[in-house]
Amino acid sequence: MKKMKHCDESGQILLLAAFAIGFMIVISTVMLNNIIYASNMASESSNDINHFEISNIAQITQDASNAAYYNATTGNQFENDVYFNYLETYSQEISTLYAHRGFSLSLGNGTLNDAYFTKNGLITGRSNWTIIDNIDQTNKFTIEMEDTSKLSNSSDPFEIHAINQSGVPIWKMKLYDDGSNINVSVDDQTYPIGASNNSINLSIIYNDPVFHFATSTTGETYRIDYFNSSNAMGLYSITGTLADGRDFTRERYKVINTTISIASSKNSINVSLPITVP
After folding, report:
1. pLDDT tens digit string along 10-27?
2. d(CA 139, CA 224)
């Protein structure tokens, strides 16, 4: 009787073990299928277009535009043909690169246009923004405006501020058109610098006896901000040294509207982006 009971218990244990093994096999199969499915989805996703891809192309194109600008500039001379030839070569190379990944990519470059002083160079761009932060010394600061018709009056001037690390403005400049003259206002002193709608060329550091920029910022760590910059169009160039000892350059010459078209077997994306030069 005991032997029979022992056999029954052994049989029950074997049956439970079989069920356990079967259950584990089912679970393992489901998990394996999920892993394979997730892996396939990830693989398919990595081979398709996403917003990160567009961001990468935009950044690479901006870098290529900067390189094209410096390649086409000798002294104060800018060679328009050299710039666009450089971009055409870049466009062909990046299209070939993406073709190997199964994408169709094309870049369409518009014409070079005068840039607003906004963050992206367009009139609709961010008007109040920081050009460069953590400055120890500014060596050159020039502004050139061929077209001054965008300047507003004294109630809505284009402004440049130097702001220290405590957030306190230590220098301000206002640039506006009063209907007769283009005026610069610094330290509550106003100076006519040209007739309305005439081009202007300002060298803020060189003319420190008038503009007091170097005098006001000496011994400070500061940033340079633009305000109401959609009211100004032209070129700016700023060079100097940061607080950590590195040299910096910030400049804007033109803006170009670039169309990026990319397609895969599943979808396509077309975007138009402003590319600043440089």
Report:
1. 444 444 444 444 444 444
2. 13
Does residue 147 sit in helix, strand or coil? coil
Domain that holds residue 201: 129-252
Angle at 224 between CA 223 and CA 227, to 5 degrees: 130
Domain count, the chain: 2
Structure tokens at 212: 């007091």
Could you tell me the pTM of the whole model? Answer: 0.75
d(CA 40, CA 109): 37
Residues in the chain: 278
Within-domain flag for 8: no
How does 88-100 read in b/e, with b if 16+ C-beta sit within 10 Å?
Answer: eebbeebeeebee
DSSP per-residue codes, 112-123: EEEPBSSSSSST
What distance in Å separates the CA atoms of residue 53 and residue 175, rounded to the nearest whole number?
A: 40
For residues 153 and 198, membership in a common domain is answered with: yes
